[in-house]
Amino acid sequence: MSNPDSGISDLPHLSHSRLQKYITCPEQYRLYYLERLRPKQEAAARVFGAVMHLALAEYFRKERDPLATFREEWTACQKFQLRYSQRESWQKLNQIGEALLQEFLAEEARKFEQVFAVEAKFHIGASNVAAPLVGTLDLVAQLEGKRTLVQDWGQRLGGARCAPLRPAHRLSSGGTGGGADCDLRVGKKARAANHLAFTERTPEQQVEYLRKMEIVSLQITDRVFYKRVGFWCRQCEFLPVCTRNEKKVRETLVRIG
Ligand code: SF4
Hints:
By secondary structure, the chain is α+β, with helices and mostly antiparallel strands. It has ten helices and seven strands. The strands form two sheets. A five-stranded mixed sheet has the order 2-3-4-5-6. The longest helix is centred in the first third of the chain and has 19 residues, at 44-62. The model is unreliable at 1-8 and 154-199 (pLDDT under 50). Residues 25, 27-28, 31, 227-229, 232-233, 236, 238-239, 242 line the site of iron/sulfur cluster.
């Protein structure tokens, strides 16, 4: 167990994924970051998201065909034991990846006129927040005449399938930059054009984001952790902990060092 007095060191930094996890469920945050519990088998959707992320990054970094990268990497994943949900399979995710990337190449890729950076790290300190916000912008590019920040699309590709959050629970990422955000998500219909959404963040929304950061960082520092039960529990890897199914905990989870 973590030292109960070590609140500040429990929060070395904030990141978009830490914020998302806390807002989804504070207990999920605690089990993941403080108890350091991890699933023995990685979720297939998460690995799929990482492969999509890599395919897009290689495309923007080296102009490598994203379909070639995706096929190579996702085929290699066949030999690993991944955790598929009831509605997922390697083949289904393969079809989704192929369809999304084909559509991306046909309709979206040409909109990116100039690439300034791929996987650019950032570190922002805010006076109202106990810990700095760190993260990576997957892409900084000129898109249809506008300098645009693309944040974390690979993770969203996977994450959206793992645990879709209701709009009210999703954090805007607009506080991290002055441009527009591009949010590529996988929904029921896996069409890139349907899920490539651009949102201008107003100054008010940026202030709101900073306020959310402040509240979440204070809650974590004060060790305010509680179960936020909802539809996302069905896909939460920590469900056996919450339902006290110790056999399943032993079978499915491991504590990392
Ligand atoms: S099962 Fe539900 S309540 Fe428990 S940690 Fe996961 S999201 Fe939170």
